[in-house]
Structure formats: C-alpha cells, structure tokens
Amino acid sequence: MALDAAWARAWMAGVGRSMADNRERLIDLDRQIGDGDHGENMDRGFAAVEKALSADDAPDTAAGILKTVARTLMSTVGGAAGPLYGTAFLRASKAAPAGAFSAHDVHDVLAAALGGIQARGKAERGDKTMVDAWIPAVEAAGIQAEAGSSPEEALNAAARAAEEGAAATEPLQARKGRASYLGERSIGHLDPGAVSTSLILAQAAEAARA
Ligand code: ADP
Ligand code: MG
Ligand code: MG
C-alpha cells in the first residue's frame, strides 16, 4: 500500500501485536543486561498507542499519527526507552510528508528519528544501544532511495538492516544506558532496545506489504 495515514495506522496496530507477542522475549533480554522491564515498558506503551489511535478525535494524517505515538510513548513507557522512542517519533512526525512517503521520505523520516535518539541519548554506533539498529536502517533506506527503489523497498531494506544491526550488538560491550554498568559482562547478549527497534521497523515494512 501507499505509505500514508492508513499505513501508519496499520504499522502501529502491527507494533502493538508485536510488542505483546515479544513481551517475554524483551523482558528476558533486558534481564540479562538490564533491569528486566523493557518488554513490559514497550507492551504498555504500544497498547496505549492503540487506544489513543482508536479515539474518535484521533489524527488522520501520518504526521499526526506519529505525533500521537510520540506523546503517548513519552507519557507511558518510562525508563530510558520512553523518552528515546518518544523523541524519535516526534522528530519523525515533523519530517513526515503531507501525502504518501517517497523512498526519500522513508530515509529522511528514519534519519530524523535517529537524530532525535542521538540528541537525547548521545549514543554512537557500537555503544550497544538501539542506535545500532537505527543507523544501518537509515543507511539502507538512503541507498535504496538513491537507487530509485520504491518506498516499500526502502522500508524493507531498512527493516532487514535493523535486524542485522540488532543481531550485531551481541559481541559488543555496552557504553550507554543501564547495561554499561556491567562493563565486560554486557558482552554476549543482544541489546533489548536494538531488538525492539528491529521489531518496530519490521512492522513498518510488513504494513507496507499489505
Ligand atoms: P531502562 O534501562 O531505563 O530500564 P528500558 O529497559 O526500557 O529502559 O530500555 C533499555 C534500552 O534503552 C537499551 O536496551 C538501549 O537500547 C536503550 N538505551 C539506553 N540508553 C540509551 C542511550 N543513551 N541511547 C540510546 N539508547 C539507549
Ligand atoms: Mg530496562
Ligand atoms: Mg527500567
């Protein structure tokens, strides 16, 4: 489908299901190198997003939907991830086009989200955070946009790159967030936030395929 308001809604419905399905997995990952609440935080946040988007006065543009997502996540998720994802969706909403997304818009919106996360959390590539899923996603979308691919293809490439980026956090030592307190003991575990980012972007691509 075109990447428009209906797509943004379908994406968020998909994320709501995915966070419920992956709740235990994300809790388990966060137990290894954090405080074990990431799955609960994300499931609660995106359940609240679903509720906010089903209200009678819910927005009917992609930008408006992304802004509601941002506000809802900021007020319900808490922890490190709440403000980070909240800022990501807020910046994404500001970068969103008035109509349907082009492949360049896909890149620009993902880049804006990443910019918000880094402005807030100061993490760089390799610090073993969600940034390690976002950076390759932005790069992959950029390559597709430059190659003249469709918006759906740009999103697919971004989702695949995020998944690979999340998998690649396993051998890293955390340098940001709670996991960094573990020092070398953070090595050998996936970063929960990088995994939740890859789930979110997988749903963006999935919704586009529908
Ligand atoms: P908390 O650590 O407060 O319990 P969560 O468990 O919900 O919060 O989220 C943890 C995730 O947040 C980490 O796996 C990591 O991906 C992400 N994170 C933490 N600090 C930062 C940061 N400074 N920059 C980017 N991402 C971060
Ligand atoms: Mg946690
Ligand atoms: Mg916590």
Secondary-structure topology with pairs:
Blueprint: H1 5-21, H2 23-33, H3 38-53, H4 62-76, H5 81-95, H6 103-121, H7 131-146, H8 151-167, H9 192-209
Helix pairs in contact: 1-3, 1-4, 1-9, 2-3, 2-9, 3-4, 4-5, 5-6, 6-7, 6-8, 7-8, 7-9, 8-9
This protein binds adenosine-5'-diphosphate and magnesium ion (2 copies).
Textual characterization of the structure:
Residues 6-206 form the DhaL domain. Its EC number is 2.7.1.121. By secondary structure, this protein is mainly α. The protein has one domain: DhaL domain (Serine Threonine Protein Phosphatase 5, Tetratricopeptide repeat), CATH 1.25.40.340. Helices cover 69% and strands 0% of the residues. The chain has 9 helices and no strands. Helix 1 runs antiparallel to helix 3 (38-53). The N and C termini lie close together (6 Å). The model has no long low-confidence stretch (mean pLDDT 98). The structure holds adenosine-5'-diphosphate and magnesium ion (MG) (2 copies). The site of adenosine-5'-diphosphate (ADP) has 24 residues, from helix 3, helix 5, helix 6 and helix 9.
